[in-house]
C-alpha cells in the first residue's frame, strides 16, 4: 500500500534562528517561526563592491589606457561608480534581518532586537519602494502605530510568489491590518 501524502506545509527550521531572537520570540509568545528576510551580510557586499572597484581601476589602466579600447571607458566608469554606491548602501543599511512568527515579527538591526506584534502594525505598504539600480534596496514598508516603520526587503520574484511576503500579508489581513 502507498503512503498518504502529507498536506501540511513544513515550517522553516527554528535552529537557523539566532538564539537571542528565538529566546525573545518565545518570551513574547510570538508562536511558530515562519521565515526570515534580510539584506544579507554587509561585509560580503562591501567585499564584492571593493572587487568591482578594483576591477574598474585595473580595467581602466590596462584595457582603456594601455590597449586603447576607449569605448570601454564608460563601462569601467559605471563599474567604479556602482561599486562605490553599493558599498555605501551596505554600510548605511548595516546588518538587518526580519524574523517572521505567527503572532509578530522580530526585527534585528546591527544586533539590536525589536519585537513587533501585529496590533502594533498600522499597515503594510504594498508598493515596492527604493532603488531598482545597482544598489538594489527594493523594499516594502511595514508602518507601525508609533509612527516608525520597518523595511522589508523584496526579492526579484513577484510578491504573489514570495512565501515570506505571502505569509506576512496573510497574517496582517488575519489580524485586521490594512495592506496598501
- Our count of helices gives 4
Task: Please tell me the overall pLDDT.
Answer: 83
- Counted up, domains total 2
The CATH superfamily of the largest domain appears as Pleckstrin-homology domain (PH domain)/Phosphotyrosine-binding domain (PTB)
Order of helices and strands: HEHHEEEEEEH
Beta strand count: 7
Strand order of the largest sheet: 1-2-3-4
Amount of beta strand: 15-25%
Helix content: 25-40%
Q: Radius of gyration, Cα only, in angstroms?
A: 21 Å
- Gap between N and C termini, in Å? 49 Å
Major sheet details: 4 strands, antiparallel
The low-confidence runs, each spanning 5 or more residues with pLDDT under 50, are 1-10
Q: How would the global form be characterised?
A: elongated
CATH topology of the largest domain: the name is: PH-domain like
CATH architecture of the largest domain: Roll
Would you tell me the structural class of the helices and strands? alpha+beta
What is the CATH C level class of the largest domain, in words? Answer: Mainly Beta
Protein name: YcxB-like protein domain-containing protein
Transmembrane segments: 46-64, 70-92
Keywords: Membrane, Transmembrane, Transmembrane helix
